[in-house]
Design goal:
The complex is a heterodimer of chains A (115) and B (113). With 115 residues, chain A is mostly beta strands. Helices cover 0% and strands 53% of the residues of chain A. Chain A contains no helices and eleven strands. In chain A, strands 2, 4, 5, 6, 9, 10 and 11 form a seven-stranded mixed beta sheet that branches. A four-stranded antiparallel beta sheet of chain A has the order 1-3-8-7, with no helix packed on it. In chain A, β5 and β6 form a beta hairpin. Chain B is mainly beta and 113 residues long. Chain B contains no helices and eleven strands. Classes of the chains: A mainly beta (115), B mainly beta (113). At the A-B interface, β4, β5, β9 and β10 of A face β4, β5, β9 and β10 of B.
């Protein structure tokens, strides 16, 4: 399966600042990548679908101007949390969908803490 | 809107027992179903994937079944070991490669040595 990395693995930032999270597909060219968010004791919730060369598709309730997604190449997608607030503190995890039957491969996640 | 429910939310059993984790989903129009394992503070490890046309998949001590028409899947773990302790997540894919997964809240499993 695809090997997916994320950077950084954890980050602490101050309220009002922006933070960028990278998701890389190391051995698979991914036209589509996904971003999920997981709050403590909760399940993963899909935030957006990242499409190489086009705009991301956001799930209902996710602010596209706050969570900026750029799928710069077939191996890299970035998620920028702009003007972060403490309620944005969460575990952010990305995935890559392989070829059929579209098994999804996940990165190790990024723990974001906003103080 | 697809909803995925996992029962039980938590389970603690002695080492060596066989156990069953349950997953149900409300919309049977799925492309596939995946079972994942998540260790505390870590990402997800894919355990098994069942395509909508399949009934079950096996990997080692793990066996997953799928009854798409009734919206149910089970994950069977044989001869449990302390190393199996983790949260197990069930997720369904709706349309295929361009779609994200819908997850359940997971079953937190503890295997007592």
């Amino acid at each position: 399966g695809a090997v997916v990395s994320q950077h950084p693995s954890w980050v602490i930032c101050k309220s009002g600042t922006s933070v960028k999270i990278e998701c890389r597909s190391l051995d698979f060219q991914a036209t589509t990548m996904f971003w999920y968010r997981q709050f403590p004791k909760q399940s993963l919730m899909l935030m957006a679908t990242s499409n190489e060369g086009s705009k991301a598709t956001y799930e209902q309730g996710v602010e596209k101007d706050k969570f900026l997604i750029n799928h710069a190449s077939l191996t890299l997608s970035t998620l920028t949390v702009t003007s972060a607030h403490p309620e944005d503190s969460s575990f952010y995890i990305c995935s890559v969908a392989g070829d059929k039957p579209y098994e999804q491969y996940f990165g190790p996640g990024t723990r974001l803490t906003v103080t | 809107k697809q909803e995925v429910t996992q029962i039980p939310a938590a389970l603690s059993v002695p080492e060596g027992e066989n156990l069953v984790l349950n997953c149900s989903f409300t919309d049977s129009a799925i492309y596939n179903l995946q079972w994942f394992r998540q260790d505390p503070g870590k990402g997800l490890t894919s355990l098994l994937l069942i395509q909508s046309s399949q009934r079950e998949q096996t990997s080692g001590r793990l066996n997953a079944s799928l009854d798409k028409s009734s919206g149910r899947s089970t994950l069977y773990i044989a001869a449990s070991q302390p190393g199996d302790s983790a949260t197990y997540l069930c997720a369904v894919l709706r349309q295929g490669g361009a779609d994200g997964l819908t997850f359940g809240k997971g079953t937190h499993l503890i295997i007592q040595p």
